[in-house]
């Protein structure tokens, strides 16, 4: 099938909604520069929520959102012209339409050196195809397939199984190899085969069970033959190159044969692919020179934080090193949380796209939040929001214009934030009633939601081990012997992905009411961590600080280094050496540290004024700890030490904990988080709350880490301190409601460290 791009658009346009060429008038001022200095950039984005009724396939919810997100990313962050981004969704995303769009939009237009992006979000499956017969026994080959909306066609033979019409890996490989450019990136947010027992209905797998086909269809073989002729390859050569990872350009995949599932998650007011959303967020906030390895390490960390240990995405292909091909000719734009997409005639009201705001923060982002444009200097205030799209009002500075990049100025959050707890789908009705009643009594901060709603964690039942008799015991089991009663189930907390949280599982036989009463303090702790996530501010702040997690067992080897945009890059130890590369930058997964490793945090102040530092974290054993500093660490056990602010003078660093105290990574396998706060003013109310919840004795050193017995009141005081420090900026704007926190982003920065122990 081959026709011009105009004919293609005209033909499939008859299908109605589902296909649209992005032709919005978002002509950024910098696009004229891009047109002169960079190759052309073309993209084909395919997203399928709905499938043909030929087979019984449950619909997805987040695939169309994926392509909409990535369209905004390509246009606003990487300079793709809107008319060069073609989108196919749902009923328009048939097998033939995808082939035609690939041919007319990419193959016929891309020239050597051009940048090409192909994105597919939808179902995938593993296909077993009969390849030959030896001695009368058929052999089968396996490969992944992308499922278009008509991935199965009605079989003309009555009573026979539908005909498979998916896009085989071999076919996709040949399409990519047919491009005239090697600057191609393929994004596949599809699964290979289902592999998880999901306990939360708001999480879905984008994979269907394996499909067995007797052979490739005649049409499939004919289409592949045309591509083989064009690429001058043989079928055997295609198999060798594909299976050895010699894929054209760069392939970013949510799943692989070894980790076969891809997930999508329902959020507060939208659904999206876990991988697609994390990728969009990371690319929006990264710099052009950031390598793919570093990008994927951060993406994996973001996915793990959202649902617990999750399937790791994979980067493969001939360009799976260095930086993204998209960054070719990248026009420097400031780190931002969004962009102005349109304005009224007077430049007083604007429509915003806020793709750079993390999902957890965006879910609770309140009207009256403010943004600033740095060049020209403009302040605007959000009036309403739906998903990533917001309406804002001009407050000061020149009139608003399309294409202006935004950074956060004032972050407005509700004081009444809660932890959302889903009840596992394996709970009986009476168990659900009991659980809801216990949580609702005096626990406004914990909200029970249905399994199909957006949640933070799951209260789930852990089934008892099977006690089915062994085959040898069949006769004994049928005798009149007295049998032991079957072991009872237990209860605990789980991430949305199903992995159980350490130290939350109760004894077998424990009833639901007692289990929830036991877990209420832990739920408060998890709420405290959720609140800490809302303070992360490592881009909008003008504070020049850096923090490094170091491993002491190996000559202070840097594990993770974080810094604000204005902080200087790491310096070499001397002129003959290079700056050490953090271990996290060498892996494409969440950094893993051996259990019990001695670690420390080094925080540096690059400003010309003093700053205050405070750190708090939760280890994989769900123990919360916080930094402390005191003048009377040598006080007697009967005395309660008084905590003081820890100050970092200009151009100096502090190490947490102090050299006289050894701090070790958790001995429990799991995810660990540490938040390092750097502020212009001391967190005095926070220190008072910490002092009230700290044990009467502290380690015999002037500074270090100690356990927090009740972290939630301490964390809530952080918001109060930041709110008070922000009043000079927020009060003149009338942001004074009693039910909100209004935080001016220039008063603090929070750097978040995430690593696994195991």
Describe this entry's structure for a reader.
This protein is α+β, with helices and mostly antiparallel strands and 758 residues long. It folds into four domains: 5-327, Rossmann fold (3-Layer(aba) Sandwich), CATH 3.40.50.1460; 338-414, Thrombin, subunit H (Beta Barrel); 419-464 and 487-531, Double Stranded RNA Binding Domain, CATH 3.30.160; 534-567 and 583-757, no CATH class. Helices cover 23% and strands 29% of the residues. The chain is built from 15 helices and 39 strands. Strands 1-3-2-4-10-13-16 form a seven-stranded mixed sheet, sandwiched between helices. Strands 29, 31, 32, 33, 36, 37 and 39 form a seven-stranded mixed sheet that branches. The protein has a six-stranded antiparallel beta barrel with strand order 17-18-21-20-19-22. The longest helix is centred in the C-terminal third of the chain and has 22 residues, at 512-533.
Please tally the β strands and state the result: 39
CATH class of the largest domain: Alpha Beta
Instruction: Tell me about the largest β-sheet.
Output: 7 strands, mixed
Amount of beta strand? 25-35%
Examine the secondary-structure arrangement and name the CATH architecture of the largest domain: 3-Layer(aba) Sandwich
């Amino acid at each position: 099938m081959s026709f011009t791009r105009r004919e293609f658009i005209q033909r499939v346009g008859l299908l109605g909604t589902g296909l649209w060429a992005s032709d919005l008038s978002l002509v950024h001022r910098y696009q004229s520069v891009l047109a002169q200095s960079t190759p052309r950039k073309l993209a084909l984005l395919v997203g399928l929520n709905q499938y043909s009724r030929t087979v019984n396939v449950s619909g997805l919810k987040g695939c169309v959102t994926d392509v909409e997100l990535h369209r905004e990313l390509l246009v606003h962050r990487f300079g793709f012209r809107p008319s060069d981004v073609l989108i196919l969704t749902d009923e328009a995303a048939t097998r033939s339409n995808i082939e035609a769009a690939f041919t007319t939009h990419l193959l016929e237009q891309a020239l050597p050196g051009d940048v090409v992006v192909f994105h597919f979000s939808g179902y995938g499956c593993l296909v077993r195809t009969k390849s030959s017969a030896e001695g009368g026994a058929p052999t089968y080959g396996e490969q992944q397939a992308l499922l278009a909306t008509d991935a199965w066609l009605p079989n003309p033979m009555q009573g026979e199984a539908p005909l498979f019409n998916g896009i085989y890996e071999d076919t996709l490989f040949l399409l990519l190899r047919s491009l005239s450019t090697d600057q191609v990136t393929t994004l596949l947010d599809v699964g290979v085969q289902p592999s998880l027992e999901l306990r939360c209905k708001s999480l879905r797998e984008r994979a269907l069970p394996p499909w067995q086909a007797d052979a490739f269809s005649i049409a499939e073989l004919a289409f592949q033959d045309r591509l083989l002729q064009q690429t001058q390859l043989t079928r055997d050569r295609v198999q060798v190159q594909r299976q050895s990872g010699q894929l054209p350009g760069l392939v970013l995949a949510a799943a692989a044969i070894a980790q076969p599932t891809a997930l999508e998650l329902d959020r507060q007011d939208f659904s999206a692919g876990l991988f697609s959303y994390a990728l969009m967020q990371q690319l929006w906030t990264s710099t052009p020179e950031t390598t793919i390895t570093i990008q994927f390490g951060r993406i994996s960390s973001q996915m793990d934080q959202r649902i617990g240990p999750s399937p790791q995405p994979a980067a493969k292909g001939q360009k799976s090193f260095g930086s993204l091909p998209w960054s070719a000719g990248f026009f420097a734009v400031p780190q931002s949380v969004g962009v102005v997409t349109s304005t009224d005639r007077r430049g007083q009201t604007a429509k915003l796209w806020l793709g750079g705001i993390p999902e957890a923060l965006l879910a609770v982002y309140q009207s009256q939040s403010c943004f600033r444009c740095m060049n020209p200097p403009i302040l605007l205030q959000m009036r309403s929001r739906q998903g990533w799209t917001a309406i804002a009002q001009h407050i000061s500075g020149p009139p608003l214009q399309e294409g202006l990049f935004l950074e956060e100025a004032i972050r407005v959050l509700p004081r009444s934030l809660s932890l959302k707890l889903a009840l596992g789908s394996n709970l009986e009705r009476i168990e659900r009633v009991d659980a809801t009643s216990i949580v609702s009594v005096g626990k406004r901060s914990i909200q029970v939601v249905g399994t199909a709603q957006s949640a933070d964690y799951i209260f789930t039942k852990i089934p008892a081990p099977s006690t089915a008799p062994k085959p040898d015991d069949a006769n004994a089991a049928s005798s009149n012997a007295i049998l032991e009663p079957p072991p009872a189930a237990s209860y605990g907390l789980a991430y949305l992905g199903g992995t159980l949280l350490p130290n939350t599982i109760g004894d077998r036989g424990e009833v639901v009411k007692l289990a929830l009463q036991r877990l209420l303090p832990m739920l408060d702790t998890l709420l405290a961590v959720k609140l800490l996530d809302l303070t992360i501010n490592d881009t909008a702040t003008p504070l020049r600080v850096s923090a490094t997690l170091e491993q002491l067992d190996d000559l202070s080897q840097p594990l993770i280094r974080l810094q604000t945009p204005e902080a200087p890059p790491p310096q070499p130890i001397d002129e003959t050496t290079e700056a050490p590369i953090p271990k996290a930058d060498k892996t494409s997964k969440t950094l893993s540290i051996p259990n019990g490793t001695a670690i420390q945090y080094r925080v540096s102040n690059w400003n010309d004024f003093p700053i205050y530092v405070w750190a708090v974290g939760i280890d994989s054993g769900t123990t919360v700890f916080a930094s402390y500093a005191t003048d009377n660490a040598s006080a007697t056990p009967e005395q309660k030490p008084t905590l003081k602010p820890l100050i970092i003078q200009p151009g100096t660093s502090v190490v947490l904990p102090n050299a006289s105290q050894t701090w070790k990574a958790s001995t429990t396998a799991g995810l660990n988080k540490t938040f390092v706060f750097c502020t212009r003013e001391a967190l005095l109310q926070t220190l008072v709350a910490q002092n009230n919840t700290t044990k009467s004795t502290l380690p015999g050193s002037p500074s270090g880490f100690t356990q927090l017995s009740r972290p939630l009141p301490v964390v809530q005081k952080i918001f109060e301190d930041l709110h008070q420090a922000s009043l000079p900026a927020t009060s003149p704007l009338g942001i004074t409601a009693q039910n909100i926190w209004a935080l001016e982003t220039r008063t603090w920065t929070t750097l978040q460290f995430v690593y696994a122990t195991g």
